[in-house]
Automatic annotation (TrEMBL):
The keyword Lipid metabolism does not apply. Binds 1 zinc ion per subunit. Belongs to the peptidase M48 family. Its main location: membrane. Its cofactor is Zn(2+). This is Zn-dependent protease with chaperone function. One of its GO terms (molecular function) is metalloendopeptidase activity. Residues 126-202, 206-297 form the Peptidase M48 domain. It comes from the Bacteria. It is a multi-pass membrane protein. It is found in: Cell membrane. Residues 1-20 are annotated as: Disordered. It comes from Gordonia humi. Keywords: Cell membrane, Hydrolase, Membrane, Metal-binding, Metalloprotease, Protease, Transmembrane, Transmembrane helix, Zinc.
Length: 346
């Protein structure tokens, strides 16, 4: 094998997008990028290659769909027997309510948000196009920027055959030259991942609406879907994972000051019943667990129980176990003034 073939490459401006289904990456024009003499290539870890669904997503979704179909069958049976009440009419109207809600939501975005186009926010438009191609989609979803009023957020949804992504302005600012365009690319890839994975379809939202309204089961499905979307975001921009966690945890101004490994280690350090409850009720994976999942791409993200191992990345999403570090806030005995001691949190 020619040694030059083992040298990593990066895409030249204007070249086709790599990692797109049906495109042979070996024929793309590339420019050599030197590597260190001690660098060792590793195959991508299980969750560092093409996006995979979280293993909990489909089983929980199947339960949700079966529960919804069972509920509708029960409602129709009661109505057929003459037991009509306002409580039974609401489920029957749910298909119309979901349709109207999606339509109004999409119209509100179209009427008030700024659309991302080739001439307006062109860098963001490029990210949307590249992610759509990389995920094997047949279309480019609409994308918008709207005033976030200080919130860091983004979401994906749809109406009819249309799909769209909305990025709040404060999160979009993370993509400014002074901050982290990598984080913005990860977030947009994450949101388009929701579309590519089918999370925004009308029928999916309708049939999962029953379980999504339940505190524990709904959040369980939501967390699995968020981990799936993170797999898409990671596939688009692996180096955007750390600044994305930094932005969500400490804000757009301090994101670069966050020690990603220390933050992810706290997924193991921080334990207890109430940590478990907070995660159980959360619609998104709690950030320390999410950081741990983005660092360790050899396994799926933790859904119910905290990660158990301290690891460090070794490349391509692979990790190696390391000795348990001291809790991040720990200090040497006797180093605090006035006889102060640590709280003993750990």
């Amino acid at each position: 094998m020619d040694p030059a073939e083992s040298i990593p490459h990066h895409r030249l401006p204007g070249a086709p997008i790599p990692s797109v289904p049906g495109v042979d990456d070996s024929v793309l024009p590339v420019e050599p990028r030197p590597i260190g003499a001690t660098s060792v290539w590793q195959p991508p870890a299980a969750y560092a290659g093409r996006p995979r669904r979280h293993p909990w997503e489909i089983p929980v979704l199947v339960i949700a769909v079966l529960a919804a179909l069972g509920a509708y069958a029960a409602v129709i049976t009661f109505v057929a027997l003459g037991a009509i009440s306002e409580f039974l009419l609401i489920p029957l109207a749910l298909p119309i309510l979901v349709f109207l809600g999606r339509g109004v939501g999409y119209a509100s975005i179209r009427a008030n948000a700024v659309q991302i186009t080739p001439t307006q926010f062109p860098d963001a438009f490029r990210i949307v196009v590249e992610a759509s191609a990389r995920y094997g989609m047949e279309f480019v979803p609409d994308a918008y920027v709207m005033n976030g009023n200080g919130q860091l957020n983004a979401f994906a949804s749809g109406h009819g055959f249309r799909r769209y992504v909305v990025v709040y302005s404060d999160l979009f600012e993370v993509g400014g030259a002074a901050r982290s365009p990598e984080a913005l690319e990860f977030v947009i890839g994450h949101e388009i991942g929701h579309i590519a994975a089918g999370h925004t379809s009308y029928w999916r939202q309708l049939l999962s609406s029953l379980i999504m309204s339940l505190p524990i089961f709904g959040s369980l499905l939501s967390r699995a879907q968020e981990y799936t979307a993170d797999n898409y975001g990671y596939y688009s921009r692996p180096d955007g994972a750390a600044p994305m966690i930094g932005a969500l945890s400490s804000g757009k101004y301090l994101l670069s000051a966050v020690d990603f490994d220390q933050f992810a280690d706290r997924a193991v350090h921080e334990r207890g019943f109430f940590i478990w409850v907070v995660n159980l009720l959360a619609s998104h994976p709690i950030l320390t667990w999410r950081a741990a999942a983005l660092r360790d791409r050899t396994r799926s993200g933790a859904i119910l129980f905290r990660p158990r191992w301290f690891v460090r990345g070794t490349g391509s999403g692979n990790v190696a176990a390391v000795p348990a570090p001291h809790p991040p806030a720990s200090v040497a005995a006797g180093s605090l003034p006035n006889g102060l001691s640590e709280t003993g949190t750990y």
